[in-house]
């Protein structure tokens, strides 16, 4: 079974530029999560989708971050404009959508904002 | 505010030296307590889920236990390949929000 795919793996941008990350979850997984992991910290949930709908985006900085999940499968996370403090690893995870279900993580995208 | 706190931040062990990692949580209604392993440059890899106080789960040299306020990850006779960051996370009953701790970085020396 293929795992969660993310691209790109690395991205370096200047502050105030825009950037987008892509995630393809495990086939059949209804729930998709985006996390931000700053160096030395645990992952912080940014947004959670159940199929096409948003379940939780309470920690998403909506003035600069946006996310969508197309047709309940792939998802993109966008930052516009980027700030220095956005430098982090952006992790995508998916689960089947049943309660108490395990989340399976992708390899992450490392973003460096200069 | 719901919180997950892990200790110690870092732990250095000799090969074969058993120890425990601690995860304390304050979420009022616990749906599940998760343990993950994260290697450098990779995403977290699932280890265990615990659902109720008194529950225990084992996998090779790892054993996870759960009380009403804490979870422990016991490592018996660790090997260098057990070196990684171990993350715990709580999921609440009210919603589906998952909160991660900062992790414990484990170094096992041969």
Descriptive tags:
heterodimer; A: 114 residues; mainly beta; Immunoglobulin-like; seven-stranded mixed β-sheet; 11 strands; globular; B: 110 residues; six-stranded mixed β-sheet
Can you describe this structure?
- The complex is a heterodimer of chains A (114) and B (110).
- Chain A is mainly β.
- Chain A has a single domain (5-113), classed as Immunoglobulin-like (Sandwich).
- Chain A is 0% helix and 49% strand.
- Chain A is built from no helices and eleven strands.
- Chain B has 110 residues and is mostly beta strands.
- Chain B has one domain (4-109): Sandwich (Immunoglobulin-like), CATH 2.60.40.10.
- The model of chain B has no long low-confidence stretch (mean pLDDT 93).
How would the blueprint of this fold be written?
The complex is a heterodimer of chains A (114) and B (110).
Chain A: E1 5-7, E2 10-13, E3 19-24, E4 31-37, E5 44-50, E6 53-56, E7 65-69, E8 75-79, E9 88-95, E10 104-105, E11 109-113
Parallel strand pairs in A: 2-11
Antiparallel strand pairs in A: 1-3, 3-8, 4-5, 4-9, 5-6, 7-8, 9-10, 9-11
Chain B: E1 4-7, E2 10-14, E3 19-25, E4 30-38, E5 45-50, E6 56-59, E7 62-66, E8 70-75, E9 84-92, E10 98-100, E11 104-109
Parallel strand pairs in B: 2-11
Antiparallel strand pairs in B: 1-3, 3-8, 4-5, 4-9, 6-7, 7-8, 9-10, 9-11
Quick structural overview:
Chain A is 0% helix and 49% strand. Chain A is mainly β.
């Amino acid at each position: 079974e293929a795992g969660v795919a993310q691209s790109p793996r690395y991205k370096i941008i200047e502050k105030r530029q825009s950037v987008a990350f892509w995630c393809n979850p495990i086939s059949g997984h209804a729930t998709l999560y985006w996390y931000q992991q700053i160096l030395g910290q645990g992952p912080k949930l940014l947004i959670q989708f159940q199929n096409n709908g948003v379940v939780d985006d309470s920690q998403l900085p909506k003035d600069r971050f946006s996310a969508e999940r197309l047709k309940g499968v792939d998802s993109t996370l966008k930052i516009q404009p980027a700030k220095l403090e956005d430098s982090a690893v952006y992790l995508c995870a998916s689960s089947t959508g049943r309660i108490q279900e395990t989340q399976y993580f992708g390899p992450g995208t490392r973003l460096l904002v200069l | 505010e719901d919180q997950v706190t892990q200790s110690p931040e870092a732990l250095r062990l000799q090969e074969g030296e058993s120890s425990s990692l601690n995860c304390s949580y304050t979420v009022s209604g616990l749906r599940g307590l998760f343990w993950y392993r994260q290697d450098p440059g990779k995403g977290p890899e699932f280890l265990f889920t615990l659902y109720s106080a008194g529950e225990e789960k084992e996998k090779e040299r790892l054993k996870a236990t759960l009380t009403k306020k804490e979870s422990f990850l016991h490592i018996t006779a660790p090997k260098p390949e057990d070196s990684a960051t171990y993350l715990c996370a709580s999921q609440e009953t009210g919603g589906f929000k998952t909160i991660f701790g900062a992790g414990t970085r484990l170094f096992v020396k041969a």
